[in-house]
Amino acid sequence: MGQVAWKGLFLSFFDYKTEKYVIAKNKKVGILYRVVQLTILAYLVGWVFVVKKGYQDTDTSLQSSVITKLKGVAFTNTSELGERLWDVADYVIPPQGENVFFVMTNLIVTPNQRQATCPESDSIPDALCNQDEDCPAGEAVVAGNGVKTGRCLKDRDSIRGTCEILAWCPVEKRSKPKTPLLASAENFTVYIKNSIRFPKFKFSKVNVLATNNESYLKSCRYSTEHPYCPIFLLGSIVRWAGSDFQEMALAGGVIGIQIEWNCDLDKAPSECNPHYSFSRLDNKFSEKSISSGYNFRFAKYYRDAEGVDYRTLIKAYGIRFDVMVNGKGAFFCDLVLLYLIKKSNFYRGKKYEEVK
User: For a Cys-Cys bond, which of 197, 198, 273, 354 suits 204, CB 3.0-4.6 Å?
Assistant: First the structure.
């Protein structure tokens, strides 16, 4: 029995097979068959080719450069600094703006600090003491301003005091202004120049209007009607991001500026345009949190006539702007030449080079 089965399997290799088509004379089956065909065809034409433009080659390796420049002046009158005029060299950090820049809107100033001994701030838990033994000499104050000297300083008739420290004295002030000192920064302007390139298609463009009118950039302001004017009011940027400038300027924050270039390069270059959107990147709903806002410290150093160094310490609050660029370019991918004509192999050989 086994031999018969193996013999039949062997002989079946020499059988010739051909397909048989059965035509079903049934309208329901025929209609369903055509509907399925039309659905597949509509999907290919409508979705793949028309909507998704599957016939196009895309380049997502966008190359981009960003240059920013700010303009504006502000005037303040404080007990620490007196009357003072602030320009871009004072409130823009770093001065050479790129895709991230910071604008100072509020500050705490501690002038004339010198390296000496003085009491640590009583707002720092590790600095509180009852006796000298609570302030071991040479130990740094945790989250403080200096190194303990071994003395506990107390006011007269006071039970508790603070440790004496070796530091830049007097220590930093802790009180923050209730209104932003540089409130007028809302009317400052920023020039954002963005140059982009799609290397695959050797296509380049910039977000600045091509004009010989030298006064254009001095008078224009960005709007949906003027998308190629790269001059933005800081107050408008914050407002478009859904925040109030004066509230944000008090403790600081972070704003994102997104520039998107989605270009159909089958169309004229004038159809490839930048699209802007603005968002607040820090948590604006945590304004009452101890971690809210954005700030950092820096100092300006001087030397007196006796050669002793001293400094002015500034705790700067402000708004950091992050410029983020993304996009893609799409171009017709030679579908006809490469796949749909008799000499397609010849054209593919010329277009693609094989390297071993």
Answer: 197
